[in-house]
Design brief:
This protein is mostly helical. It contains 21 helices and no strands. Helix content is 80%, strand content 0%. Helix 3 crosses helix 6, helix 17 runs antiparallel to helix 18 and helix 17 packs antiparallel against helix 21. The chain is globular.
């Protein structure tokens, strides 16, 4: 079939066009919110890279060395990301895509099908890298007053640089699927991905770049740069891309590294096509095997649940939700990455040197205490929108079983609330208490922060559960789609407003108390009354948000059932 390669890509383009033309509730709100975030990130990367490059110009040869090293590190970071992204994306495009049943039986040449699948894999794997690389390279070029050829070279460099790691990742997927069933391989890759991301985060933080800001650590600067130089090797495409762009930045042209990039990319495509023709169909056949339900019982959960003071209905709903959560690797494995981020968060507080300003250390510590409270609130909101908000939608098409069963929507939704509340409350409370202990803030502020997290946990989990019931998406493929829906965006907006209002209502009376305590003066009675009103308003607003969210969710489910 002539032209099959382009025709195989047209359905995806038409689907994207039709989705853009089809208006759904919340599309405009999502477009404004995510568009604003995208513009802010683009501008931050652009001005940050431009400012840093401009600063390096003052150091002559050292600045050029650091710029070359920085370009290699940027491309090396994206090299690892593209490789793993290629592995995961190829698993879907080559083996788990729904349209493969039709395409494999159609009169389409295998090589044309491969080119269509691989082109789709490269685009889906690398679009985010291009989005992040574009402002960085634009900022570097602007600060260096680079010629027009630099921007043309940048585009010609990113294309082969993206093809090479994606091809390697696709080859790994081809090998993996011929050893394990595709669906089991997907779970394994997700777990490995989160472990890899957590390890990268911990490794980058353990380098401790804040040492460069201390005068007493200047003798270690040479060792620090040696550590940065050690992973940069001339055998990697990241080094070729960095050297090619640096030469173009100075007005030259590096033929050697440009040839290395393009010839390697073409060689990867040819080798991958040969491997695909040999092993793709056998891997696809293995991907059609039904997954083995090895973890179907979890009897220990049922034993533990018997000891909980719950009604039989809520106990069974609890066991059901826990089993579904534990069987989904994409759900619980994300907690590993979250745990790594929490540890890094606490580690940052442990290395803060707040005693360098003795006469202001107490004030600064208390300010950081409020900052910690706000950050814990945002962590709480993020966990709620990712794990709690999609809990009703996670029932999927089987929700009709719940509606037809002798279970009231009140019991059903409140079971979701309690399941989501306790892990969220334990995590954020432990995070807040540990960070405040590391900071050494005033004991009164410690108690206020701990109580505030309890109030925010009830309010935000209740709000997420209620809005998740009001705006369910039972046809969503994964919880991330539910979190990015209209209801998820509305929840995040309301959650941010609630966190800000709560911190303001708790912050003013707390700072007033600390001020009078520092001055060792009694607090006037009118001021005490106003402080009590402020604390009471914070409690009333959070409790009202909690109860109102749950009641609206129960009402929405009852209306759906009727």
């Amino acid at each position: 079939m002539k032209g099959a390669f382009t025709y195989l890509l047209l359905p995806h383009l038409w689907a994207s066009r039709n989705r853009a033309q089809r208006r759904e509730q919340g599309d405009f709100t999502r477009a404004v919110l995510f568009g604003g975030v995208a513009v802010a990130v683009f501008l931050a990367l652009f001005f940050g890279s431009a400012w840093l490059t401009w600063q390096l110009q003052d150091y002559d040869e050292l600045g050029d060395y650091l710029l070359r090293l920085g370009l290699s590190w940027v491309f090396m970071t994206f090299l690892a990301f593209l490789t793993f992204s290629g592995i995961v994306t190829a698993l879907s495009t080559f083996f788990l895509s729904d349209d493969l049943r039709l395409l494999l039986t159609a009169p389409v040449a295998a090589r044309r099908l491969f080119y269509a699948r691989f082109a789709r894999t490269v685009v889906q794997s690398s679009w985010m890298v291009v989005v992040f690389l574009a402002p960085v390279l634009l900022g570097v070029g602007l600060a260096q007053c680079a010629p027009v050829s630099f921007y043309i070279t940048s585009a010609l460099t990113v294309v082969p640089f993206a093809i090479i790691p994606v091809a390697v990742g696709t080859a790994c997927t081809l090998l993996l699927v011929n050893v394990f069933p595709a669906r089991r391989a997907r779970d394994l890759l997700m777990l490995m991905g989160f472990l890899f991301a957590a390890a990268i985060v911990v490794l980058l933080r353990m380098i401790r770049p804040e040492q460069l800001m201390r005068a007493e650590s200047l003798p270690d600067v040479t060792g620090f740069f040696a550590t940065l130089q050690s992973p940069v090797t001339p055998l990697l495409p990241s080094f070729w891309a960095g050297e090619l762009l640096f030469a173009s930045l100075k007005g030259g042209w590096d033929v050697l590294h440009a040839s290395a990039l393009w010839t390697t990319a073409l060689a990867c495509c040819v080798a991958l096509r040969a491997a695909d023709e040999r092993w793709q169909f056998s891997g696809y056949s293995r991907s059609q095997e039904a997954p083995k339900a090895r973890f179907t019982r979890f009897r220990s959960l049922e034993v533990i649940a018997r000891w909980l003071p719950l009604s039989p209905v809520r106990r069974q709903l609890l066991v059901k939700d826990l089993k579904i959560f534990l069987r989904d690797v994409s759900q619980w494995s994300q907690l590993l990455l979250l745990l790594a981020l929490v540890l890094i968060y606490l580690y940052n507080f442990s290395v803060l040197d707040l005693g360098r300003v003795p006469y202001m250390s107490g004030f600064i510590k208390n300010v950081y205490g409020f900052v910690n409270l706000g950050m814990a609130g945002f962590v709480l909101a993020t966990i709620a929108v990712r794990f709690v908000f999609p809990m009703v939608s996670a029932e999927g098409p089987a929700f009709w079983l719940v509606r037809k069963s002798p279970v009231t929507m009140h019991d059903f939704l409140w079971s979701k609330f309690w399941i989501g509340l306790f892990p969220v409350l334990l995590l954020t409370e432990a995070l807040t208490i540990a960070a405040n202990e590391l900071l050494g803030i005033d004991p009164f502020l410690k108690y206020v922060a701990a109580i505030a997290i309890v109030l925010l946990s009830f309010a935000l989990v209740g709000l997420a559960t209620g809005l998740g019931a009001r705006y369910p998406r039972f046809t969503a493929d994964n919880p991330s789609q539910v979190a990015g829906s209209y209801g998820g965006v509305a929840f995040m907006i309301l959650a941010v407003l609630l966190i800000i209002v709560t911190i303001v209502l708790l912050g003013w009376p707390t700072t007033t108390y600390l001020f009078y305590q520092l001055r060792q003066r009694p607090i006037p009675t009118p001021r005490l009354v106003m402080m009590g009103v402020s604390y009471g308003a914070a409690v009333i607003i959070t409790v009202a948000t909690w109860l109102r969210g749950m009641r609206s969710g129960v009402a929405a489910l009852d209306a759906m059932s009727n």
